[in-house]
Amino acid sequence: MGGRRTPAQVLLLSAVGVVCLSTLVSTMVVLNTTSGPDSPENSQPSPSSGYQETCQAANLRDASHRVSAAVDTLAVELSCKGRKNGSLSEDKSMELEQNLRKIVDLTLKVFFDLSANESGFNVLDIFGILDSLSLGNHSDPGFLRLWFSLKMAPLLPHVDESFLISLSRQNFTCSAFKELVGAMNEELETSERMKRKLIYTSFIKAYLSRKNLPDPGCTKQVNQSEEWIQRFVGNFFVYASLEDLKEINPNFKAEDVFGKLSPDQKAELILDPNSGALRNETIVREVFKSLNMSHDDKQLRQFFLAFTRINMQKNITLITNPAVRGTILNLTLTALAPGFKDFEPEDFTLWFQVNLATVTASLHPGSLVVIPSNISCTSFAAILTGLRKPLESLPLHRSHDVRSAIASFKETFPRCTVAESLMCKQTLVDEDLICAAVNRSQLDQTLSIGNSSEAMCNVTVIAHACSSATHLTPNNLVKS
User: How far apart are CA 98 and CA 152, in angstroms?
Assistant: First the structure.
């Protein structure tokens, strides 16, 4: 217990001493008002009386709250002397701020150590994090920076959605809000992803989306998208959807911050009909070039998770622009090629039946040369199922390359292909294409009038196939 004490320890001990003295006086007053000098309790000390009676959760919470309130008072004094009348130098103000922060950190540690077996409390309420906001001016960035440093930063691991929504409803100015976002950027640099996403959704997005502010979205003083993101969204930008950002700031352009876009946002950019990317092969190439800059396919996989999700949400089954579709398919297969040797059947299923489903219509015989020749027949079957999917929607005249790719793929893996003589052959046809030149109504009328063997034999097989075939009966077929 000996040795010199640091200023922070002295401050903490002083604060705790004041709180303990206040609690002791309160306890003595209660005891004196409930027990006289001649009462049995005073004449016969009980083993269970005295110190043990103060071991209550309420005492711990009350003491912690008082220390926190004392720090609030000292912080207001620091703000006054350090910034308003300038009686403290900047270095001295910073030193005192750091000491006050240590008091809060140490008090939190003591509180959690002593309340390890307690439950049913809200540490944010006990330390009065929102109450302390009322002690200063919301429009003062300096006050908010100090408040964040002393109150919110130490408790940041414990904030929840309810608290962040309440914080977003405070009447901050845009400059004060910018100060908070910047402070959160620094404090949460290495924080877990879910906490950062929660702060974006429940605080940053919630605040910027408010319509009852003097400057909704904080857009009046900023012209460039990149500057707006840097000031008011910061590193939380990666958790925003491009749609959200455009709703908040109608002048926002994703192209202006392309280098900051996450893989999810790049997928959103490509599939946004207003971006023009679905008609611009150059934009698509830039996206995939940026995705493939890493040494693994992590970003590519993340991109396709979002790409597939958005396609399903928008009910997109085919990328209609052939150049864009072919670019996505070819660049993806090229990027995946080095890893195909380690793919399991479920990996081929994911890529050829799910991720690439909207672009496999651009397959041609040369597309699949990147597939290793030693894959299992289960993997072969997974790929083949994906290759056949476009045939369900492509017109016959546009499916030639896909059919050629399938034929070439089968020839490459004869060990996995069942002989056609042992299979029931199924040929997919496009009825509209075949019957386009046949006048069905005139044909049906002709056959209904002259329902004779001669009339039926003068009609081609294709014409019969395109008719309603109501004239064909077992009787006249035998006669024919």
Answer: 14
- Rounded CA gap, 472 and 447, in Å? 9
Distance of alpha carbon 273 from the chain centroid: 21
pLDDT band at 20 (very low <50, low <70, confident <90, very high): very low
Q: At what angle do helices 263-271 and 281-291 cross, to 10 degrees?
A: 170
Predicted pLDDT at 93: 87
φ/ψ of residue 19, rounded to 5: -65, -45
Q: Report the predicted TM-score, pTM, of the whole model to 2 decimal places.
A: 0.72
User: Are the C-beta atoms of 327 and 281 separated by less than 8 Å?
Assistant: yes
Which contacts (CB < 8 Å, 24+ apart) does range 221-226 have? Answer: 221/174, 223/251, 224/256, 225/249, 225/251, 225/252, 225/253, 225/254, 225/256, 225/257, 226/256, 226/257, 226/260
Amino acid letter, residue 369: V
Reference 54, options 83, 23, 77, 84; nearest CA is: 23
CB 350 within 8 A of CB 384: no
Terminal CA-CA length for the chain: 115
Tens-place pLDDT, residues 57-94: 788 889 999 999 999 989 888 887 776 566 788 888 88
CA distance 103 to 7: 10
- Would you kindly state where each structural domain of the chain is located, as residue ranges? 1-34+56-155, 159-259, 263-429, 435-479
Predicted local confidence at residue 77, as pLDDT: 85
Instruction: List the alpha helices (DSSP H) in 213-262.
Output: 225-232, 242-248
Q: How far apart are CA 368 and CA 387, in angstroms?
A: 10
Task: State both tokens at 245.
Answer: 């950002």
d(CA 128, CA 5): 28
Q: Which of 26-40, 70-84, 138-152, 228-242 has the lowest mean pLDDT?
A: 26-40
- DSSP assignment of 161-213, as one string? HHHHHHHHTS---HHHHHHHHHHHHHHTTTS-HHHHHHHIIIIIHHHHT-SSS
Q: How many CB atoms lie within 10 A of CB 176?
A: 20
Render the burial of 181-204: b for 16+ CB within 10 Å, e for the rest.
bbbbeeebeeeeeeebebbbbbbb
